[in-house]
Each structure stands twice: as C-alpha cells, then as structure tokens.
Amino acid sequence: MLTRKELMKKMDIKKDKVIKSNIMAVLTKIVSNDSNTGWKLVDKNGKEIKVGDTITFEGNQVKVTSLEPPHKPGANGRVSTKNATKNWTGRFYANVYGLKFVRESDATAGLKNRKKIIASDKTYKIVRFYQNINHPKEVLETGLSFEEAQEHCNDPETSSSTCEKPENIARTEEMGDWFDGYYEE
Fold first, then answer.
1. Residue 86: helix, strand or coil by DSSP?
2. Is the Cβ–Cβ distance between 164 and 170 less than 8 Å?
3. In this predicted model, what pLDDT tens digit does every residue of 89-107 receive, in sequence order?
4. Are 184 and 162 contacting, i.e. CB atoms less than 8 angstroms apart?
5. Residue 23 contacts by C-beta under 8 Å, 6 or more apart in sequence?
6. What distance in Å separates the CA atoms of residue 83 and residue 57, rounded to the nearest whole number?
7. What's the pTM?
8. Structural domains in the chain?
C-alpha cells in the first residue's frame, strides 16, 4: 500500500496548500504501526474498551473513534472520541479518560492495532487542560487542520508528564499536571 506522501507524489500533486488541502480532504488512510502490536485499552475495572464503544467523559457519553497505543515505554497512548450531542471531538491521553493501555496476552498479541488518519477541511482548536479544576481550560490556537492539531499534540512538550523544557516544568510546578488536546471547531 502506498503512503499518502507516495500517492501524492505519484499523482504529481504539488505542495500548493489549496490543492493539497482539497486532496487531503478526500484521502483516508489506515496506517499500520507495528510497534502498537499487542496492546488493548481497559477501564479501571479491567473491561476492554474498543473503537465504537461509548464511555463517560466529563459527565457526557462519548463514542471512541480511534486508539493510538503507547509508542514507547512509559507513554500513555491516546484515545480519540466524538460527542454527537455536543458536536465535538477530542484526542487525549488514555489516562485523561480514566483508561489505560495494557499488553495483551501472547495468545492475542498477533492482532495489530491500527490508527486511522482522516484528513478533512474542518478546523480544530488546541486547548490546554489542567488537572486542577480551579484552573480554567486555555485555548492556545484556533483554525488548525486535523494534521496540525495532531502534530501539536504529539509533541512531548504538550504534556506535564513528558515535557523537558524549563518553562513547561515551571508551569507544572506552579499549576500541577496539564496537557494539550484538541477539539473540532
């Protein structure tokens, strides 16, 4: 299977943003990530959570739309959700939802997890969340593409649990745990 980049090259699509964004709006690609093999998502009671399941988040019922198991030891992995009634989507670390990724038994480890990357012309905003409920959420950026929002949130400096820059460590010491997520606008 061709990657999106290879497909765009084969189709001779230039890097013009308008053309690229229109093409990207119709491309959906399943990307296999072999390092994700052998993970499953579970709730605090050990019940497995799968794509399509409904969970409770901040008092709302949300549908799990994709799973991204941890990419390295000590990482949390991410879960994407959609709330149909309030029309928003979110992609957060699993522990924000009260969930965690665990290794599957050797009997089921042969199944590969896949993450779905969907490009669209929708825009997204980056929001900083704090564990301290007395500190309000902060909107950091608006008008981003799905890829830009994902790229931002994949940066280790967007979470108190993985950041290393002095200013982010200072924020953690002052405000407590925090992370950046995104919503569809």
1. coil
2. no
3. 888 888 888 898 888 753 3
4. no
5. 8, 11, 13
6. 9
7. 0.41
8. 1-31 (no CATH), 33-114 (2.30.30), 122-185 (no CATH)
Q: Which residue has the tokens 């400096």?
A: 157
% of the chain beyond a pLDDT of 70: 69
At residue 34's C-alpha, the angle toward residues 48 and 29, to 5°, is 85
Distance separating alpha carbons of residues 11 and 18, to the nearest angstrom: 16
H/E segment holding residue 127: strand 124-130
The secondary structure of 24-60 as a DSSP string is HHH-EEEEE-GGGTTEEEE-TT--EE-TT-EEEETTE
User: What is the pLDDT at residue 167?
Assistant: 93
Chain-centre distance for alpha carbon 83: 15
| Mean pLDDT on 29-42 | 55
Structural tokens at position 66: 């994709």
Give the SS3 label for residue 116.
strand
d(CA 170, CA 67): 31
Tell me, what amino acid is at 141?
Answer: E
Residue of 43, 32, 23, 104 lying closest to 68 (CA atoms)? 32
The residues pairing with 101 across neighbouring beta strands, listed in sequence order, are 41
